[in-house]
C-alpha cells in the first residue's frame, strides 16, 4: 500500500496544472472542474462530500467572526477532510453583515455573505482538499511549477520511501 500511495502522490504532485490556474488579486486558484477531472484520472474511485449541519446547511460559523465550509475526499483508501473560511476577493472573512476595515489607502468594505460566496468557498475547499493528495500542492507552497520529489514518508506507517 505504501508504494502505491507514494506513486499516486508523486504523480499528482508532479502534474503541471498551471494551464488551469486563474489569478485573482495576486493569488493563484486552480479551477475546480479541471482539478476534479485531473484527479479522477488518477483516482477513478474518488468521491467527495460537503459537510452539512442537521438543517442541510453547508456552512458553519458565527455572524460576528465569519463562516467556514468543509469538504471530505476519499480516494485509494485515503480520506482527508479540509476546511476553508468564506472570504471576499481581498481574502477577508465574510460575515452576516457588511463591515469596514482600515487600509493604507483608506477604508474598505466587506459585503455580507451570500450563497454564491458559500458555493465558491466550497469548491475552493474541494481543490484545497485535492491538494492534500498532491494535486496542485505546489501552488499552495507559492511555487510556479511542481518539483521532483526525492523523499517521501508513508502516511500510514511513517517510514521513508526512497524515490
Keywords:
single chain; 4-stranded antiparallel sheet; 163 residues; alpha+beta
What does the model show?
With 163 residues, the protein is α+β, with helices and mostly antiparallel strands. The chain contains four helices and ten strands. The chain has helices at 2-14, 32-42, 115-131, 137-140; strands spanning 21-24, 27-30, 47-50, 60-62, 66-75, 78-85, 99-103, 106-110, 151-153, 160-162. Strands 3, 4, 5 and 6 form a four-stranded antiparallel sheet that branches. Helix 2 packs parallel to helix 3 (115-131). The chain starts with a helix and ends with a strand.
What's this, in brief?
By secondary structure, this protein is of the alpha+beta class. It is built from 4 helices and 10 strands; from the N terminus they run αββαββββββααββ.
Number of helices: 4
- C-alpha termini separation: 15 Å
How many beta strands in the DSSP annotation? Answer: 10
Give start-end ranges of low-pLDDT stretches: none
How large is the share of residues in beta strands?
A: 25-35%
Summed over residues and divided by their number, the pLDDT gives a mean of 89
Q: Helix coverage percent of residues?
A: 25-40%
H and E string: HEEHEEEEEEHHEE
Shape: globular
The major sheet is characterized as: 4 strands, antiparallel
Instruction: Quickly give the structural class.
Output: alpha+beta
Radius of gyration: 18 Å
Question: Could you outline the blueprint of secondary structure elements for this entry?
Answer:
Blueprint: H1 2-14, E1 21-24, E2 27-30, H2 32-42, E3 47-50, E4 60-62, E5 66-75, E6 78-85, E7 99-103, E8 106-110, H3 115-131, H4 137-140, E9 151-153, E10 160-162
Antiparallel strand pairs: 1-2, 3-5, 4-5, 5-6, 7-8, 9-10
Helix pairs in contact: 2-3
